[in-house]
Amino acid sequence: MLQPLFYPESIAVLGASRTPGKVGHDIIANLLASGYGGRIIPVNPAASEVLGLPCLREIKQAEQKTDLCIIALPSALVLEAVRACLDAQAGAITVISSGFKETGVEGAELEHRIAELCQSHKVPLLGPNCLGLINTENRMNASFASRMPQPGCISVISQSGAICTALLDLAAARHTGIAKMVSIGNKADLNEGDLLIALAGDAQTKVIIAYLEDITCGDEFVKAATEASSKKPVIILKSGTTVAGQKAASSHTGVLAGAEIAYGAAFMRSGVIRADNFEALADYGALFAMQPLPKGKRVLIITNAGGPGTMAADAVEKSGMTVATLDRNTASALRQKLPLAASIGNPIDVLGDAEPDRYVAALEAAQEDEAVDAVIVILTPQAMTKPAETARAIAGCHKGDKPVVVAFMGGADVMPGREELVAAGLPDYPSPERAVAALKAMVEYAAWRKRPPRMVARFPVNRRRVERIITRRQRTNRLQIGEVKAKSILQAYGFQIPQGYLASNVGEAMEIAERIGYPVAMKIVSPDIIHKSDLGGVRLNVTSSEAVADAYDLMMLRISQRAPEAWIEGIYVEKMLSRGLEVIIGMSRDPQFGPMLMFGLGGIFVEVMKDVTFYLAPITNEEAIQMLMSTRSYEILKGKRGHKGVDLAGIANGLQRISQLTTDFPQIAELDINPFIVGESGTEPVVADARMTLQAPGVTR
Amino acid sequence: MLQPLFYPESIAVLGASRTPGKVGHDIIANLLASGYGGRIIPVNPAASEVLGLPCLREIKQAEQKTDLCIIALPSALVLEAVRACLDAQAGAITVISSGFKETGVEGAELEHRIAELCQSHKVPLLGPNCLGLINTENRMNASFASRMPQPGCISVISQSGAICTALLDLAAARHTGIAKMVSIGNKADLNEGDLLIALAGDAQTKVIIAYLEDITCGDEFVKAATEASSKKPVIILKSGTTVAGQKAASSHTGVLAGAEIAYGAAFMRSGVIRADNFEALADYGALFAMQPLPKGKRVLIITNAGGPGTMAADAVEKSGMTVATLDRNTASALRQKLPLAASIGNPIDVLGDAEPDRYVAALEAAQEDEAVDAVIVILTPQAMTKPAETARAIAGCHKGDKPVVVAFMGGADVMPGREELVAAGLPDYPSPERAVAALKAMVEYAAWRKRPPRMVARFPVNRRRVERIITRRQRTNRLQIGEVKAKSILQAYGFQIPQGYLASNVGEAMEIAERIGYPVAMKIVSPDIIHKSDLGGVRLNVTSSEAVADAYDLMMLRISQRAPEAWIEGIYVEKMLSRGLEVIIGMSRDPQFGPMLMFGLGGIFVEVMKDVTFYLAPITNEEAIQMLMSTRSYEILKGKRGHKGVDLAGIANGLQRISQLTTDFPQIAELDINPFIVGESGTEPVVADARMTLQAPGVTR
Fold this sequence. Notes:
- The structure is a homodimer of 701-residue chains.
- The first copy, chain A, is an alpha/beta fold.
- Among the domains of chain A are: 301-441, Succinyl-CoA synthetase domains (Rossmann fold, 3-Layer(aba) Sandwich), CATH 3.40.50.261; 499-575, ATP-grasp fold, A domain (Dna Ligase, domain 1, 2-Layer Sandwich); 581-694, D-amino Acid Aminotransferase, Chain A, domain 1.
- In chain A, 39% of the residues lie in helices and 21% in strands.
- Chain A has 24 helices and 31 strands.
- Chain A has a seven-stranded mixed beta sheet with strand order 9-8-11-10-12-13-14, sandwiched between helices.
- In chain A, strand 29 (668-678) and strand 30 (686-687) form a beta hairpin.
- In chain A, helix 10 packs across helix 16 (432-449), helix 13 (356-368) packs parallel to helix 14 (387-397) and helix 17 (463-475) runs antiparallel to helix 18.
- The first copy, chain A, is flat.
- In chain A, 56% of the residues are buried.
- At the A-B interface, helix 5, helix 11 and helix 16 of A face helix 5, helix 11 and helix 16 of B.
C-alpha cells in the first residue's frame, strides 16, 4: 500500500522554491543530490523552473498521475493543495508544512479535515509537520534533511524530525547504513503502527528503530508491533516517561499504574526492545543490524587487559546474562596457542602485548565452543597493540553464527580499528558496558522470538449475571461497586468467595451467623462508604450470637454518627476466612492499552515497596506465572527457610479470570481484589475483599 | 616528598635499549619526544649511546645524584638495580618491569624485598609492573605510552596500564587536557592513597580521576581520599564489583555486607564520586575540570527540539535533581526575545530553526535567574542549525558562575561545534542522559563539600565490663556470643534490655517469673545452639507460674532430644516486650574498611527485599539518620496513612552506640541486634535478641 510513498516513479513538490534554505527548495535539491532516478515535478504558480527543472503552475497540469505529492506550502493553503493532489490521482501525499495540531484547536481541525479527505480517497498521508522520508534503495531523499545516509539495513521511524537528523548525523559518523527513514510528524493518517507493518514487510529493512513521544492507538500499536517484532527486531526509544500525567484513580491498582507502566507492559507484550536513551537506540540498532541472534545467554569475554575484562564480566553478571565457562577441551587447545601468562578463563586475557594472532586464537576457540553463545572482544591501545590489524583479523575469523561484539576502548588510536570493524559488520562500542547492554537486548529479544505460542484460556463463566449487574449500575449511575456486588461478579467468574449474606436487621444477622457458623465477619454495605473500616464498619472474628447482635447495633450507631448521610443497605455477614498469605490482584484500564492486570503481595509490599508487576490483558497462564516471578517478593510466594510456599497456580488462575472478566466487560474501569487470600499449594484462594469502578455509560475505554 | 618523581631534574633509565619497541628504548624516545628538559641518562653495560644520548655502563658512574631512576630490566635483575640506584642516591624509583606479585609467591617475595629496601632508604618507589608516569607541566613522558597528552587540569591514577593508555587515547580524541598521569602497577610502595595526597596538593591538578581494582589499606585510603576530596573532586572507577568473594558470615549483617558494599560505604564517607563505567570516568572528569560546582540542584534545559528536551527532563527527574522553574520576570523578559511559538518553560524550546542568537537569549536568561543552579543546552542538527556558530555563541555568553553542560546530538555535522565547545571549556556529551549523569555527580559532590563537620558522639559506657567478657571468651576460644552475654555487653554500652535472669532449674525459673512479672519469655541458653527457636528453645508469652514450669521442663526435654550434645547453661527468663516495630541494627567488620554498620527493617524487608543500608563506623548522628532515610522502608518508620511513626532518634542512637562499641573493640567481628524493638516517638527502643561473633585471638580486623 505504501509503494507510492517509498518507491514513487514521480514526485511532485507543491511549494517548490528557488530560494535555498526554503523547504520547497531544499527537498528538490536533496532529491537531485541523492540521485533519485524518477521524475521530479516542481509546482509553483510563480516560477517556470526550479533548480533546472521545468515547473508546473498547478499539479493538475501534470500529464500523468503523480505517485508522490510533497506539500511544502503555508498551512492555510494545504487543504486546497491536498484536494488538488487527490484530483490529480496522487498515489501518496506527504505534508511537510507545520501549523496544524501542534498549534492548537484550529490547526487540529484543519489537520483532521485533511486526513479525512485523504482517507476517503484511500490515499496515504504522511505528516503534517514532518521532515519527509528517505529511501536509500531508490536513492530518494524526499526530506529537507540534507544528509543522505549510506545504504544499509536499519530503518528509522521518528516522531521528531530533530531526532531523525541527529540519527542521520550519528549514522554518518559511525558509518552505519540506513534502509528507510520516515519522519511521521503529527501522524494525522499514517502512524507508527502503519509504518511498523510496512517496514516489517520491507525486504531492505532488517532492523526497525523508532523514536516515539506518544502512540496513536494502543490496540493497533500492540498488534502492529507484535507482527513486526515477530519478523525483525523493533527497538523503540519512548520519551516523556516521568512527566506522564497521573490520572485520578480509586483503586490500589489504579494508583500504581501509570502511562509509563502501560508502555512498558505494551512493549513487553509486543516483543519491542526498549532503548532507554538516544545512544542505546543507535547502539542496539547497530548490533541487531550486523550480528545474528544468540542461542542462549552465555557470554565469553576476550581482552588484552585485566581491568576492562573484569568490567565486562561485572556488567554481564549484573545484566542477568551468564559469564560462560569454556569447555575443557577448548580451554586446553587454546592453552597451546597463547603464552603461558595468558589467562584462559573467562575473561580470556590475551595479555597487553597481544598481536592479532592471539585475538584470532581466542575468538576461534570461543566460536567453536558449544558452551558459548556470544562473544565480547575488548581491546585497549597498549604499546604493542595494532588496532587496525587486530580489527581486520577479528573480522577475518568471524564466522557469523554467534554474535560477536567489540569494545575498542580509547579514542584517536583505536579509531582506524573501529572503522574496519564496522565495515566488516562487527559493531564496536566505546566501553565494555555498552557492548554488554546491547548484547543483553539481543538475548532478551532472542528469548521472546522463541516464546511458546500464546494460548489464552477461556473459563466457563456466568457472563449474563455480570452483564445484568453492570447494566443496572450504569443505568442508575452507581459506578462504585462495593464489596458485596463485586464479590458476586467475581463469583460469576469462578472466584471462590466466603459464604455470606446481607442482613437488614439484627435478627437476620444472628440467623445468618448461626446458619453459616462462627466465627463470622460483619461489614457495612453502603454505596456511599468506600473505606469501611475507617468508620467502624468492619468487625472480624465475631464468635457468638450475642456478639453478632452487639456488633450489629454498635456498627449501625457508629455509622449513623460518622456518616449520617450514607445510604445503608445493611450489614454483610460472612464466614471468617482461614489464614493465608494476602496478595492483591487487580486491573486498571489504561486509556491507550486497555486492561492492565496487576499483581503484588499485600500491605507494605504494595504500598511501600511498590513491588508490583503489570501485564496487558488478555493474559496467558505462562504470562501470569511470569508476573508472579517478576516481583522481588516471589521468594515469599514460593516458600523460604522452612515455610511452605503458596498455591502459585491459584494466583495465576485468578489473574486469568480477571483478564477474561475485564476483556469481556470494557465497562469495568478498575478492579481490586485486596486481599486475595492464598493458602498452601493445592488449596483454592479466596476473595476476602474486592471493589470495582465502572466507566460512566458511553465510555468504552 | 614526590618532587623527584614528578619534577626530576635528571632521569636515568636502567635497561636503556637501542631497539624500538623495547620498553627501555621507548621510554627514552618518549622523554625526548615530549620535550622533557632535564638530563636523560641511559644506563646499559652493553651500549655507548642510546638515541643519541651518551650511555652509562652502570648507574654509579653518574657524576651527580639522579632524581628519578626508571628500571626497565628483567625482573631477576631488578633487586640489584634498585640497590645500585639507592647507592647512587636516587630521589625516586620507578620499576616498569613485570614479573612480580602478579606471577605468584616468588614474585611477591621479590617485590616485597624491593619495597622494603626503598622504604628503609625513604625513597619512594612507583610500580613494579607499571606503565610509568606523565607530567605535562614539565613535558615529561616517563612512560612507555607513546601518546603525550595536551596539558590540562585532570590527573589520572590507574592500577591498570591499559586503562591509562585507553584514557590517554580518549583524551586525545576529546581534546581533554591532562596534568599528571600515574600508573601505579602493583603498588609495592606508593599506592592510591599516597598519590591522592600528592595530587591533592598539586597546583596543576583540579580533578583526580582514578581506576582501581583493589585498595591497599582501607583506613589509609579513607583518610587520604577524604583529604583529597575536601580539596578537589576525586572520581573513581572501581572494577571487580560482582566477583567479590562472599565471606562466611554468621549474622544477617555479615551475610548482606560484601566487599562491594564496603567500597560503596568507603567512597560515600570519603566524598569520592563513583563512576560506574569507563565512559562515566571521562564524562565526569571533563565536567569537573571545566565547570564550577552548582549551588543547588535546580536544572534548566534549553533545546531546539521537543523530544530531546523531554528526555533531558526525564533524566533530571529520575536522577533526583529538580527541573527548575524560571522566575516570572526572567520568563517574561525572555518572551520578548524568542519567537511566539517558542516554549518558555523548562525545557525552553528555542525551536528547530533556532540560530545562535536564540540560544544566547535563553542561556543568558538562565544564567541570570536565581532559581536556576545549572543549565543543560541541547542541540540537534536541523536544517537551519549552525553547530559551530552556536557553540561559539554559547561559549561567548557563558559567564562561568553556574555549570553549563552541553549535549550536541548527532555525529559528523555537530562535530565542529563539539570541538569549539571543549576548547571554550564547555563539556559536551553525545546525549542528554550523559550530560545529566555528569551533572548529577557534580550536584552530589557539591552537597558533600557543604556537609556539616563530622561530630562523632562519645557516650559514657562501661567499657571495662565488656573488656572482661571479651577477654575471657577469647582466652577460652568461645567466639560465638549468645543472647544473654550479648545483651549484657549491649547493656554496658547503654542499650535498654528487658529485665531477665538465668534460671538453672524449674524453681528458679518460677521465682524469676514471679519477681519480674508476667508475661515472660523463656529462652534456652547454650553456646552450642545458634537457632534457638528451630529446636524448641524459645517460648513467648508465658503467663503463669504453672506455665513457666511446664515450659521449662518441656524445653529441657526437647533440647535433650534434639541437641543431646549441647552444653546447656540454663533457661533465660525475661520480661515480655510490649509491641513495636522490629528493626535490625548490626555490624560486620570488613577486612579492608573495618566496622560497617547496618540498618534495615526486620523480617522480610531484610531477608527478601534486601532493603538495608551500610555506613562505615564511626558514625555521626546525621549519618545515622541518613542511614534510616536511605531505606525504601523509611516511609514506614516515619509513619504513614494514620499510623504513627517510630522513634527515629532511638534507632540513630543505637547505631551510634554500636559504632562506639565496635570501634572500641576490634575483637568483635560481627554483631546483630535482631530484632531491635522500636516504639513511638519518645519511647526507648529495646534489644529483643542479639548475637555477636568475636575474632579468633590475635586477629585484629
